[in-house]
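<context>
A single protein, sequence plus fold
<entry> Chain with its tokenised backbone below
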Amino acid sequence: MAFWSCCISSAHDRNGEDVISAFQSAETVAVVADAGWLGNVEVECASGAEASAMTSQRPFLKQVVTDFIRSVEAGRPLTLLRERADGSTVDRIDATLSLNPSHAELTITAPGGKVNIDILCLCDIYALARDGERVFPQRTLTDLTGDESQRLLKLYYETYSGKLRCLMFLESAADSVDHFILSVSLLRESADTRVRSQKHWAASKSFRRSSA
């Protein structure tokens, strides 16, 4: 899934190919923040029928995101996957995912360090089960066991210094992968909506002052 308003102008995978979404939707779901918490879910669709269908999902979408936020507040477990430099194996590292109180920054903490990610700088997120093998390294794919192929995700993001990075990790359960992607996507849209609203308010205030 691509976050088209990513901080960077374009993203590329390890093979130099454009990182594009394997599935795109006609509708845009925008979650409007209310005092730092998720309020309404506004939906812009290509047709009235689609708008009606998406509007009916508002309670479901809000519950999914609320459950996700509660899980990361408690420290959501995940398993990072990291290929060794010599390509001999893929290490599995126990980690936790957390979200700051303003829902603006994700933090992945593992033994030896942590990664902070501005939620507005999330670029793409892929699930092997949904998007196929295209963006996943072959060494990692051949090392998967059991239901790990159903739990594997790859997250592209821009660092605070402007560099494109990616993380591969396993969700705790296969049936939570879709909700993970949906929740992160909606939180990203919520943050973007909040920033655009703040910019609009600041511009309006400046215009009123100049007109006075």
